[in-house]
Task: inverse folding
């Protein structure tokens, strides 16, 4: 068992730090917790600004995180990745990690609430500004543009209506 600690993080609230060197490819932690349906998971976190849900397989089942792994913060330039191995989710070192470093992985979020920006403060050079996956960001930009267009249309119709009065 690797020696890890939870302490305050510059990225977000608390983070998970390693007290020893970790070599690339090491399975550091398992993302443990109760497995529930996506619907049940969303109900549990309704109205809360964060979740500890981790989608597995096709995303219909989520792990409601409980344990050390849920403290691992997001970074757009992470030192870990997650991988599903025989139906279990592990946080694995992407590179050699030195003692004292904070562990991070790319959350690659999807299916967020419309008004939730999931802002990222990882400060890496390649920061996307958000914890959403690039695909989810494209989807959200398209949805926002569509909404804007519809609003513009509605206001034009409004003007026409008032003129014809
Ligand atoms: Zn970032």
Result:
């Amino acid at each position: 068992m690797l020696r890890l600690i939870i302490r305050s993080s510059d990225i977000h609230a608390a983070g998970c730090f390693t007290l020893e060197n970790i070599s690339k490819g090491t399975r550091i932690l398992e993302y443990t917790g109760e497995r529930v349906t996506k619907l049940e998971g969303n109900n549990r976190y309704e109205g809360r600004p964060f979740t500890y849900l981790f989608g597995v397989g096709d995303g219909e089942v989520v792990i409601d995180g409980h344990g050390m792994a849920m403290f691992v913060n997001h970074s757009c330039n992470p030192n870990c990745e997650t991988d599903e191995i025989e139906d279990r989710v592990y946080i694995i070192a992407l590179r050699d990690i030195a003692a004292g470093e904070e562990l991070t992985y790319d959350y690659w979020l999807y299916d967020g609430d419309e008004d939730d920006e999931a802002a990222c403060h990882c400060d890496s050079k390649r920061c996307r500004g958000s914890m959403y996956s690039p695909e989810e960001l494209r989807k959200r930009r398209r949805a926002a543009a569509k909404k804007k267009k519809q609003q513009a249309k509605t206001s034009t119709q409004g003007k026409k209506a008032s003129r014809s009065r």
